[in-house]
Amino acid sequence: MFVKFTKNQQNILEFLKQLKGEITAQDLHMNLKEKDFKIGLATVYRTLKYLHLQGIIQERITPNGESLYELIKDSHHHHLNCVNCGRSSLLKEDFCPINKQLTNWCASQNFKLYYHTLEFFGLCEHCQNEVNKANLSN
Amino acid sequence: MFVKFTKNQQNILEFLKQLKGEITAQDLHMNLKEKDFKIGLATVYRTLKYLHLQGIIQERITPNGESLYELIKDSHHHHLNCVNCGRSSLLKEDFCPINKQLTNWCASQNFKLYYHTLEFFGLCEHCQNEVNKANLSN
DNA sequence: ATAAGTGCAAAGTCTTTGCAGATGT
DNA sequence: ACATCTGCAAAGACTTTGCACTTAT
Fold this sequence. Notes:
Oligomer: homodimer
Largest sheet of chain A: 3 strands, mixed
Strand order of the largest sheet of chain A: 4-3-5
Structural class of chain A: alpha+beta
CATH class of the largest domain in chain A: Mainly Alpha
CATH architecture of the largest domain in chain A: Orthogonal Bundle
Strand content of chain A: 15-25%
CATH superfamily of the largest domain in chain A: Winged helix-like DNA-binding domain superfamily/Winged helix DNA-binding domain
Number of helices of chain A: 5
Shape of chain A: globular
Largest interface: A-B, 46 and 46 residues
Order of helices and strands of chain A: HHHEEEEHEH
């Protein structure tokens, strides 16, 4: 996978394997530093980009513009994303409308499918009132 | 919808109505300037944010990190996104796996659903060879 | 008259890049 | 030995914000 397999790469991959859920590049960097691994933020970004390119991890960008990464697994989640507060809540695990027919269709396009994201956007319960008060001076 | 309905707001909304497809904030700004509308980039960003908050337009963030906006319509597209070159290609128009059952489920969560995005990530035909040569020095 | 909207420039945030030095095979 | 990988600091890109001025109602 990697051309060399350095300590940094091992540490990142190991961390992602242990991780339940998603993490930002910056949080991942902090976590590794806290474990006394010496690693630069740029290396974290470079490694995540490479892992993404290789189809090992997936990326999801939140309404706040944060990139979240996690290993690609068989089981995955989709989210309800509030366009006001930016919070995401998980959809029940077994919900996923992607069927084999579609997967096959991607293959027929010579597109090598790594993963998909399905995200719902709107207002969470709390924000529905807030938004009525919004204007362009906010 | 807007508290006031200024020339800027009218111009942006009119432009989005004419537009087929998606556009970035910066391109939208350029287009309006070319039509000799005097408007600041910040105003474009503020207006798009407000329209998004109100559920008038939707946002999609590409693998390159660009935010693309368009009016929410009944018909919509999903995309195949190449994680290498970042190009997106449209899925056939009639494909959408989201059913009424799911829509109802969102409602039952007191989540006010505006729109959804469903995106597929992987390698386009052209990039499948390229990626084999990739390493962390790139 | 007043709150809402605006333009500009500055600031903020996340991410990428150039380069010299370190590392794995 | 050599290309790959790394850290650091600088650069880059996009977006947001503060503030004084303008505009719509």
